[in-house]
Amino acid sequence: MGEFVTKGKLLFVEGRLQLRSYQDLEGKKRDVTEVVVYTLRFLGPPKNGNGAKPAESSKGAESADESDNPFNEPEGGTDEQGIPF
């Protein structure tokens, strides 16, 4: 993943959190939270070197259409439990 994703890159991730625990070599109990990804989508325009034509890369950056961004908060804000989704 590290070769495709950099800090500030917009992503859509769909999946679940998985909790598990184990004992390490010293016998201590360790808890782990893992993200199990079902769907991963790159949002926003590609950067030069990722398929953009050289002529396109010399233009000024165009703003991405954020209307279908699943991370935008709904009109009502958060629900009664304080969860924004």
Describe what this molecule looks like in 3D.
A hairpin with a 5-residue loop joins strand 1 (11-23) and strand 2 (29-42). This protein is 5% helix and 32% strand. The chain has one helix at 54-57; strands spanning 11-23, 29-42. The longest helix is centred in the middle third of the chain and has 4 residues, at 54-57. The model is unreliable at 51-61 (pLDDT under 50). It is mainly beta and 85 residues long. It has a domain at 11-51. The two termini are 26 Å apart.
CA-based gyration radius: 19 Å
Number of helices: 1
Structural class: mainly beta
Which H/E pattern describes the elements?
EEH
Tally of DSSP β-strands? 2
Helix content: under 10%
Strand order of the largest sheet: 1-2
Largest sheet: 2 strands, antiparallel
Q: Can you give the mean pLDDT?
A: 74
Q: Quote the distance from N terminus to C terminus.
A: 26 Å
What is the percentage of strand-forming residues?
25-35%
Overall outline: elongated
Low-pLDDT runs: 51-61
